[in-house]
Specification:
This protein has 566 residues and is an alpha/beta fold. It has helices at 18-24, 31-38, 72-81, 100-122, 140-156, 181-197, 217-223, 232-238, 264-267, 272-281, 298-320, 328-338, 342-352, 357-364, 422-433, 461-465, 476-493, 506-518, 545-560, and strands spanning 3-7, 45-49, 86-88, 130-135, 168-171, 207-209, 227-228, 241-243, 249-251, 289-291, 294-296, 406-411, 441-447, 451-454, 498-502, 525-528. Helix content is 40%, strand content 12%.
Amino acid sequence: MPAIMTQVLHFVDFNLNEKSFNEWFKDGKTLKDWIIQENPTYSPILFADSGGFKLLYNREYDLSKYQLKATPESVLDLQLKLGADYVASLDYPIPPGLNKEETNERMEKSIMNAVRLMELVYDSHDVDVFPYLAVHGRSYEEIQYYVKRLFNLLEETGFNEYSHYPFGLAIGSMVPIKNHYELIVEIIKALKDTLIEINSDPEKIPIHVFGISGRITPFMYYLGVNSFDSNTYVKAAQNLQFFVSYTQKKKFYMITNRDLDLCPFCNCIRGRNLQKAKKILKSKSYSRYSLHGKEVIKSDIYGIIALHNLSVQLNLIGELKKYNPKSREFKEWLVGYANSDNKLLKVVAKLSTIDEDFIDIATKFKLKLPKLPKGQFYARRISLKRDPTKFDITKTPYSVPPEKRVILILSCTPEKPYSKSTTHKLIFRYLQEHGVNIKKIEKVTLSGMYGPVPQNFEKETSILEYDFVLSSRTPEEQVSLVSTRLKEFLENHARDKWVVAYIGSGAYRKIIQRVQKELKGNISIILLPDESQLRRRVNSEVRKKTHLRTLVATLEKLLNTGTEPF
């Protein structure tokens, strides 16, 4: 039976106005009604997530203009308006590295909201949905604690009789660790083990995994996961990745007709149409082209790739259903499936610590299982609580060394310290390789939380632990704080220096542009890459060689001139 998942706060990404939002639900019309209106033969089961992942990093979304609040009651009301058959409790996912205090706070909020959802569903005669209660934890011990605490509260509130009050469990906080398969296995196993330990039948309670699919899907099936959701097939298509098997993908420009399968979407690009499709992808958007006897636009090719990728994933699920997940036959299938992929073989190695059958099967296939990685996955501690007062360079003793002639401003990175980040290392390595005297450059990182952070302060605890970036939705109050601190910093330290801001992100560029105007005539800021040269206003632009060459040329010119900025 077809099923789709929607994230109930998805509309906030599109700056939808209140009038248009209310139009969706006019006369009691639901999302399912809209779907059926477009295709009367398609009536899927609808699973409505709570939108908790959007609140993961405390991003601000103005829900008030839609008459919504981030409460279990308000979220369930929206899920019901969408016409949901299954609903997830409002949760607070836990990012990797979050400190213990905030982790416990977010766990407790999620647990209380899960219990509240049970009350809203089963204490009301008007609600006919199946509830999934979110589960969070980044280790075996955290999952164990969470599940025991949740079940204790369910028992205290009278929901201990599953036959009268059925529910599912949905594992969250998985997207940030989606590439760490052994950890995903550990978390799912922890949930199953804990259900057995508290005398609950693990086969009775359906288990969903948020945001995970792809190559690990067969292993989740083995571990007893009943369902999962993912947009991997779409994300891959956006990057022109074409699935050529269950475990392999190729760039679309590199595939040949031999890589096409029998899905209807491959039929659209078979034969000479494949070269036509590749040509269309290199052509202008919104123009109309002919392909397979139909008129198409560029985005249709992305759609064909995405639907092909989905078809491959659905075929994999169809194959899995042929097996009993606990049978020896399926375990042998799993080892064969992982045979040519070292990352998947590490999952088999992890499973061999749980089930000795995998050791026997690996020996039978003459396979040497790789050693499991050691060390802590969450090496860096972070905090989601915002407190810009914890660091303020304008109130800190500091001066730019006299030998530094240029202040180079870069935007902050998720990796800390900034200088160890992939982006900052790449930039400075490129400068060194091209002869730029970096000893004459004072690097200053523009933090979305604290404003300017000179390099010597990058290892301060407050700098290492925060996890926040500016976005188009950041409140003006925070934008103004960062702008004010940058302006004051430059007024105090840049009057006899050249200032170059090398930034791709639109939110950070706007701050530079604001300060440029405010300091015009006093301090000059060179903003690179030039606006006309940017394809997109995202931070990855600064890693492009064309922009790096411009940066090198600009710095060399400034460092080699004998004149002062003013």
